[in-house]
Amino acid sequence: MKVHSFIRQGPDLLPVEVELSLMPGLPQISFLGLPDAAMRESALRIRSALREQGFQLPQAHQVLVHLKPTHLRKSSRGLDLAVASALIWETGQLEKPSWLERKPYFYGELSLKGEVVPPDDLGDIETAEGDLLITGDGADLPLGPALVMSSLRDLASPDLLQREGVAIQGERPRLSTESFPREAARLLEVIAAGEHATLIAGAPGSGKSTLVEAVAALLDEPDPRTFRTSRRLARLFGREVSWRPVVQPHHTITPLAMIGGGLNPWPGEITRAHGGVLIMDELLEFHAEIQESLREPLESGSISIARGGHVRTFPASLLLLATTNLCPCGEFTPRRENTFCRCPRAVRARALQRLTGPFVDRFAIFALTDRWADERERIPTSEIRTRVEEAIWFRKERRGQLVPNGKLSESMLESQLGSTEKRSMFPEGLRSGRRRLAIMRVARTLADLRGSELISSRDLEEAAELSWRTHERLQAWRE
Ligand SMILES: [Zn+2]
């Protein structure tokens, strides 16, 4: 018979299928499929546990335990329970319970006396919604339903536990005491309410870094399941998180440290930002390989590392906030006829070329700082926070949408746009599907900020300004 458990692969516990069969032969338990020494030892514990708990080992039969996938070297602290349970059912010593149909995951160590002990890496298990976990009674159970037992004898009637939430030990980061020019304040509230990947370009000292650093304290509270993962990932880096993580690497960071990798692949800073914010100041100064590697997290919320013919995928669902100069002197702006830029034409053209490439196209918002200094009126962060909170409340409570708008799929947005009349409101000359999607996501956030179910033509216009016009203006300067 087959049951499911987990094996350790570097920083993660991966699901494994455990197939147990009986063959005539000497009574012993043998593991197939690259077990390590510790796992071979578990055969002794299983035999002793079964005997102590009053179960029989099959006579004149050998127990074969086959582990899939077969190509990975197996190490596991919690496989004992899976093997012992399967053996008890396979030999008909207990009736198979109805909950086996839910394909539960078994993860527990056995003592020689047959007590079921939750392995100390139980907290690394990531179950999906609705998965059922079978283990010993312990502290660090994942979210969702679990059947727990104190000894193997309880297998006939384990206790059902349900963990609903995870304690978020800590609180929202302190709100910035800065105030922002109206245009910057608007940008800040849109980023924070919708969680849109944003690139801000402008001269040094124009306030772009201050703005991206103010975002984290305005964001929605962490989702419990994601927070549990962020916390686990932080521990791999020897850190603790008490809220959504904020990761701000320097541009001299190596691709290995940023992306992850190595012989036994380990995640990098990109993964440490999972569930939180990744801030990249001077974006174009980062190694080209790093810039390239960000495409995947921005599209799929994860990052893959290829190693020896196999691919490891780490979580990387993050809000990317980046800043850059538009040219080496920093003074160039495509919005003014008389720009103060002192760079030679060719140098500037080269810089602009990098900013009109496919990488920059991944950002939902591309904003310029050149008008911020002209504004007299300044908006305090506390006021921005109130507006952001109201927009998030509207999205979750009134519209019933749990994912932030920055992660909305095209089909979910299309249904909100509706009529062909609205479709024609997209700016003329806009052919890129990715830009259209960005405009729609941002427009959805603008509608939430107004407290409106419907996206209006004004929302689309303002979204086009945030998501597309900068690209268009830079393109015009290149030509
Ligand atoms: Zn310049």
Question: What's the SSE blueprint?
Answer:
Elements lengths: L1 E8 L2 E13 L4 E4 L4 H16 L8 E8 L10 H12 L14 E2 L2 E2 L5 E2 L15 E4 L7 E6 L9 E5 L15 E3 H13 L3 E4 L6 H8 L8 H13 L9 E2 L7 H5 E2 L4 E2 L1 H4 L4 E4 L7 H6 L1 H6 L1 E6 L2 E6 L3 E6 L20 H11 L9 E4 L9 E3 H18 L11 H8 L2 H4 L9 H18 L6 H22 L1
Parallel strand pairs: 3-4, 5-8, 8-9, 12-19, 12-20, 13-16, 16-19
Antiparallel strand pairs: 1-2, 2-4, 6-7, 9-10, 11-21, 14-15, 17-18
Helix pairs in contact: 1-2, 3-4, 3-11, 10-15, 11-14, 14-15
Bound molecules: zinc ion.
Describe this structure in words.
- This protein is an alpha/beta fold and 479 residues long.
- The protein is built from 15 helices and 21 strands.
- It has helices at residues 37-52, 79-90, 182-194, 208-215, 224-236, 255-259, 269-272, 288-293, 295-300, 345-355, 381-398, 410-417, 420-423, 433-450, 457-478, and strands at residues 2-9, 12-24, 29-32, 61-68, 105-106, 109-110, 116-117, 133-136, 144-149, 159-163, 179-181, 198-201, 246-247, 260-261, 266-267, 277-280, 302-307, 310-315, 319-324, 365-368, 378-380.
- A hairpin with a 2-residue loop joins strand 1 (2-9) and strand 2 (12-24).
- Helix 3 (182-194) packs parallel to helix 11 (381-398) and helix 14 packs across helix 15.
- The longest helix is centred in the C-terminal third of the chain and has 22 residues, at 457-478.
- The termini are far apart.
- The structure holds zinc ion.
